[in-house]
Design a protein that fits this description.
Shape: globular
Structural class: alpha+beta
Mean pLDDT: 77
Oligomer: single chain
Number of helices: 6
Length: 237
């Protein structure tokens, strides 16, 4: 497979591996080898970034969808409860939920020829989420996340938007009516590989990922303290 828009400058094999890496399609052994190469091969890191940008641009080719007002209200309540909903998230920008994420993944699979990938099957269910900007005027932040429940590994790719100087982006999981749980501070670029905490459930279909802007090093309270910059619904792949 090669980049359909010829944006890739790497060799064909590395280009294919980089695309599969961004989509979370590599098997455990290939993933370990590929991530080891990322530590030493700058060209490969650039190739991964190119594919992340390429897939992100595909969102613009999908039809827009505006969820009903009750979706936003439900998200507000699930994040911080009824009492704090308006003060903290009254500005939360409506975003397209699972339908757009599923449509984008289907489009990518067809467009790039990755529908069938022998030897790339995961040991358990795989969940995906596309985190869209909560307020694109304040900060146009978006990310793509893939959670391999069988391996207990979450991969989060920064598509666009960096934290301001002296601030960090922190990732949160919200399951049902439970309080947000931190999954850690995210790097400014590249792909974050996070080991899934044993205390958290692995069946996260319908849960939410959210990214908040926090002081350097992340929240010190165990809960989001800064503005929410991106949010997305988790769906079973």
């Amino acid at each position: 497979m090669t980049d359909p828009e010829n944006t890739s400058g790497g060799t064909a094999p590395d280009s294919v591996l980089a695309a599969e890496y961004v989509l979370g399609l590599l098997g455990p052994e290939e993933l370990e080898v590929f991530e080891a190469r990322l530590d030493t091969e700058e060209d490969l890191v650039i190739e991964v970034a190119r594919w992340a940008d390429h897939f992100a641009a595909m969102v613009d080719r999908l039809p827009e969808a505006t969820p009903a007002g009750r979706v936003k209200r439900a998200i507000d309540t699930r994040l911080f409860g009824e009492d704090e909903r308006k003060s903290l998230f009254g500005w939360l920008w409506p975003y397209a939920l699972g339908g757009i994420a599923a449509a984008m993944l289907a489009f990518v699979a067809i467009d790039t020829g990755l529908v069938e990938m022998p030897g790339q099957l995961a040991d358990g269910p795989v969940y995906r989420a596309d985190l869209e900007p909560a307020d694109p005027v304040a900060a146009n932040v978006s990310l793509s996340a893939v959670f391999d429940a069988g391996r207990g590994v979450l991969e989060v790719a920064q598509v666009q938007g960096l934290a301001p100087d002296g601030r960090d982006h922190e990732l949160w999981l919200i399951v049902g009516e439970n309080a947000p749980v931190s999954l850690g501070v995210l790097p400014d670029d590249g792909v974050a590989v996070i080991s899934w905490p044993d205390a958290l459930p692995r069946d996260v279909d319908g849960a939410l990922f959210a990214v908040s802007e926090e002081p350097d090093g992340g929240s010190q309270t165990g809960a989001p303290t800064g503005p929410i910059r991106a949010v997305g619904s988790i769906t079973l792949s």
